[in-house]
Amino acid sequence: VSWKHVLGHDVLVAAFASAAKRSRFGHAYLFIGPTGVGKYTFAQELAKTLLCEARGERFEACDECPSCHLVDAGTHPDLFIVARPEDKNELPIALIRGDDDEPGLLGNLALKPARGQRKVAILDDADDLSEEAANSFLKTLEEPPPRSLLILIGGATENRQKATILSRCQIIRFGSLPPAAMAKVLAAHGIVDTDKQRRLLQLAAGCPGQALALDDEEVWNFRGRLLKTLGSGKIDPVDVAEQWRTFIDNAGKDGAAQRARAAFIFRMVIVMLEAALKLSLGAVCPEWEENERQTLQELGDRAGEAKLLAWLERAQEADRQVEWYVQLVLVIEAFLDALSR
Ligand SMILES: [Zn+2]
């Protein structure tokens, strides 16, 4: 079985197909994997497959029947999708439990299937469930309505999930994609230039969604400046903080988009420091261009292993702080301060 809209996760597709065949389908799954690896796309295709009214032997949506069309249009009555509103840091409980006007996710899941198959709910941004909202789930997870399926989409790890939710869900892990699968996804989105593909592959660490989001001159130019900054050996924290803030502000007013850019900065720093470390230990690193390799090599030789490792640790900490909603200005200042010392 292969799903034409989902590339690079064949093992997971096969696992779900086999579960469906043996009638061993769970009622609650938690998807774990890095941002942009394809968890949401997978969840949607899984929902479409389960709701498809013309599915044959193969565990695959037909893309033709009324149900498949409704899923594509975002109007299927038995598929309910909830995500954190752009202007909020948390998933509000009203979206889960419902209020006087809307039944919410739980209310929707409890309704009888309108088209006779089953009910599917997708909860995106499940890392951002408020304590109260997470607790409101527990009963449904213990005693799910018949023929209902709940898919929670979490982050790169399950660290931010409550134990009560973890113990009631089957965890599905999404691994990053190999370069060949990445190139296929990019080509499917019209990015066929091999130079561009190579750049994006290097930026996106096996996550096609990130590669597509990074297909942007401003981002690529920023990456170039970042490499120069790290390579220069003298970092003026005030000056660099200003550059980083401008780059983050240019993402627009949306807090999630700003946070995504901050996360990108620290991911890039980590990738560059790791490469500098590898080069200083004699590795080859063919994925970097010649002049970039030189810059990184110089950085590695000048800083030395101990310092690079200490910086890496700080960058990883900063990356986690971004994920935990620490104020970006503070995260950046603390990191640059450590880097310039
Ligand atoms: Zn169909």
Summarize this, please?
The protein is α/β, with parallel strands linked by helices.
Overview of the molecule:
- This protein is an alpha/beta fold and 341 residues long.
- The protein contains 16 helices and 5 strands.
- It has a 5-stranded parallel sheet with strand order 2-3-4-1-5, sandwiched between helices.
- Strand 3 (119-123), helix 6 (131-142) and strand 4 (148-153) form a beta-alpha-beta unit.
- The longest helix is centred in the C-terminal third of the chain and has 26 residues, at 255-280.
- The protein is globular and about 65 Å long.
- The model has no long low-confidence stretch (mean pLDDT 91).
- Residues 52-54, 61-62, 64-65, 67-68 line the site of zinc ion.
Query: What are the secondary-structure elements, in order, as H or E?
Result: HEHHEHHEHEHEHHHHHHHHH
Strand-residue proportion: 5-15%
Terminal CA distance reads 54 Å
- Give the helix level as a range of percent: 55-70%
Radius of gyration: 22 Å
Largest sheet: 5 strands, parallel
Using brief descriptors, characterize the structure shown.
alpha/beta; 341 residues; binds zinc ion; 16 helices; globular; 5-stranded parallel β-sheet
Sequence-ordered SSE layout with sheet pairings:
Layout: H1 10-21, E1 28-32, H2 39-51, H3 66-73, E2 79-82, H4 93-97, H5 104-110, E3 119-123, H6 131-142, E4 148-153, H7 163-166, E5 170-173, H8 179-188, H9 194-204, H10 208-213, H11 217-232, H12 237-249, H13 255-280, H14 290-303, H15 305-323, H16 328-340
Parallel strand pairs: 1-4, 1-5, 2-3, 3-4
Helix pairs in contact: 2-3, 11-13, 11-14, 12-13, 12-16, 13-14, 13-15, 15-16
